[in-house]
């Protein structure tokens, strides 16, 4: 059985293992102090929020999300990070986390919940295609540094 809820202070070490797995999947380097800063921001809960998924009491998945204003509608909810431990995949963990974030978005009165993934992330996209609608947008990142 998968249970979703808030991250607990005792989840710190297990959360970092999952967060590092997420960053490794997307080939994104984060210095060690970056994980500490993100954990602080998640625990603060004012800018970035998180839910955890547990199976048999063990942390097996994380979702990080945030709300932002939009010019043409109510606030939007952006699911920034979603990661499930490889050993727990295929058991409904990602779906449960997405649905939990959707509940938070509804409670906030957000107009939409959205996320991005890499085009070749076929496993995740198979789930996303069942849960959500692909709207055809392609994202570009302009270098600021």
Automatic annotation (TrEMBL):
Residues in N-acetyltransferase domain copies: 2-145
Signal peptide: none
One term of GO molecular function: acyltransferase activity, transferring groups other than amino-acyl groups
Keywords: Acyltransferase, Transferase
Classification via InterPro entries: Acyl_CoA_acyltransferase, Bact_Acetyltransf, GNAT_dom
Protein known as: N-acetyltransferase
Annotated organism of origin: Streptomyces aurantiogriseus
């Amino acid at each position: 059985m998968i249970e979703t809820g808030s991250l607990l202070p005792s989840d710190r070490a297990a959360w970092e293992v999952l967060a590092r797995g997420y960053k490794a999947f997307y080939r994104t380097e984060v210095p060690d102090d970056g994980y500490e800063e993100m954990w602080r921001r998640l625990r603060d809960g004012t800018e970035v929020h998180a839910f955890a998924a547990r199976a048999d009491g063990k942390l097996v998945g994380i979702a990080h999300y945030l709300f932002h204003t939009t010019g043409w509608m109510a606030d939007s909810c952006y699911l920034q990070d979603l990661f499930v431990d490889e050993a727990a995949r295929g058991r409904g963990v990602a779906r449960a986390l997405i649905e939990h974030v959707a509940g938070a978005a509804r409670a906030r009165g957000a107009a939409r919940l959205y996320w991005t993934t890499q085009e070749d992330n076929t496993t995740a996209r198979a789930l996303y295609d069942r849960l959500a609608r692909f709207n055809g947008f392609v994202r570009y990142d302009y270098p600021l540094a």
